[in-house]
Request: fold
Amino acid sequence: MFSGIIEDFATVVAIKRDRDNIDLTLTCSFVDELKIDQSVAHNGVCLTVVDIQNADGTAGTPVYTVTAMKETLDRSNLGLLAVGDKVNVERSMLMNGRLDGHIVQGHVDMTARCTDKQDANGSTYFTFQYAFNKEMALQGYFCVDKGSVTVNGVSLTVCNPTVDSFQVAIIPYTMEHTNFQDIQIGTVVNLEFDILGKYIARLQQLQDK
Reply:
């Protein structure tokens, strides 16, 4: 479970393909605090740490490795990553603190594409468009005005939603500390819709049967 509050960038240092899977090796500021089997969200995708190297101060950059399976690659932008790319990372939520974002599972639903980027005299407005599917929408895969959405792992508030698009406003701090600084028109991002909305939609389906 995550909150959508990004802790750091992780930089991709190696990519290895293993049949339908991809092993991503990355470095970030808290590698020495990680443990094998720990869950870390990468651009909003919950992945398990499977290897850690050089975190004990030995020669070389401290790195860790996670594996993304085919299902994850089909639903996310992780398969588009290249060595040198920056990835938003967040460790799992501590239960003894404040929930500063919203409830994020780390289960990416689909990708979206940036269709517009506008300066707002300090902040920046991004518009994202995703493939509308009526059946998926009936299961809660949609946005509502002032609701929550996770974009590349970042907890954000929805503005001006349509059937297949929405807008978010990014403050300077978020721009500086996440990979939103690299998003341009055409960039593919990961989306996780609000889990509470999915449960409500599912409940409505069951009541209608």
Observations:
- The CA atoms of residues 64 and 200 lie 38 Å apart.
- The first strand starts at residue 8 and ends at 18.
